[in-house]
Design brief:
Blueprint: E1 4-14, E2 17-22, E3 25-31, H1 33-43, E4 48-52, H2 64-73, E5 78-81, H3 87-95, E6 100-103, H4 105-109, H5 112-121, E7 126-134, E8 142-146, E9 151-156, H6 157-166, E10 171-176, H7 188-197, E11 202-205, H8 212-221, E12 225-228, H9 230-233, H10 239-248, E13 252-253
Helix pairs in contact: 1-2, 6-7
Length: about 260
């Protein structure tokens, strides 16, 4: 496998703490974000994501103090999402120490914000996240959800991914609502479909990792970044062992 694959732990944040849910609900505490960031960097994470899971629905900005503290502890590229609705909110997060921003609901509601952010910060610093769920009535079989997975849009997820790529976005992050926190495996058809529709974009596999085979399957489906939360937070899988397993199975994992 030629593509270099990165491992990306995700810190889902609420009220300044790392939390983890199942299907975007049933939220449980998983620790202090700075301690988590330090531990993941020491363990060999290639990137880190921090998602303020209630910023959008509470109509507020991301917790900049948390971003600042995590950035100070982090030695790998660090993406922040949640409450990123325009150039100003993205700039505030980048100034607080993030390397990249991720936008989802605001980008869907006002797609021109994607072009504005790319113009201001460059394509390498803007990720578009797409929460998806199965809808057989749509051409791809997947529907876009917004507001932290709460609101169905009626839009086809793969068609939206193609539009996103058309703005110049280099990283697309689809999260399966059905798979989130369930540890039953990534949603491989949606990863494969977005990878095939946007072959020159990095697709982040997100939602559902439960065992090492799931990471391998996602890489084989075309994911360039393998994101997970609960399996890392609760030490069901540790990053050094995961990287060794992937390399042994032909995946070109980032050193």
């Amino acid at each position: 496998m030629d593509q270099i694959v990165s491992i990306m732990p995700c810190l889902d944040m609420r009220d300044g703490r790392v939390v983890k849910g199942v299907h975007f609900v049933d939220i449980a505490d998983a620790g202090d974000p700075v301690e988590c960031a330090r531990a993941y960097c020491a363990a060999g994470a290639d990137e880190l994501a921090l998602l303020d899971i209630t910023a959008t629905v509470e109509n507020r900005a991301t917790l900049h103090d948390v971003v600042r503290r995590v950035a100070a502890a982090c030695i790998v590229p660090f993406t922040v999402g949640g409450g990123i609705r325009d150039v100003a909110s993205a700039a505030a997060v980048l100034e607080a120490g993030a390397d990249k921003v991720s936008t989802s609901s605001a980008a869907f509601r006002r797609p021109e914000v994607i072009a504005e952010m790319i113009r201001e910060f460059g394509p390498g610093r803007v990720t578009v996240a797409i929460d998806v769920d199965v809808n057989p009535a749509l051409p791809s079989g997947y529907e876009v959800y917004i507001d932290g997975g709460r609101t169905a849009t009626g839009a086809d997820a793969v068609e939206w991914a193609k539009k996103v790529r058309g703005f110049g976005v280099e990283t697309i992050l689809p999260t399966s609502k059905a798979g989130d926190g369930a540890r039953t495996g990534y949603d491989l058809p949606v990863i494969r479909a977005i990878h095939e529709a946007c072959p020159d974009a990095a697709v982040v596999a997100s939602g559902g990792a439960g065992k090492m085979e799931h990471f391998l399957e996602a890489a084989q489906a075309g994911a360039g970044v393998l994101l997970a939360a609960s399996v890392f937070h609760f030490h069901l899988i540790d990053i050094p062992e995961l990287k060794s397993y992937l390399r042994a199975n032909g995946v070109n994992v980032k050193q």
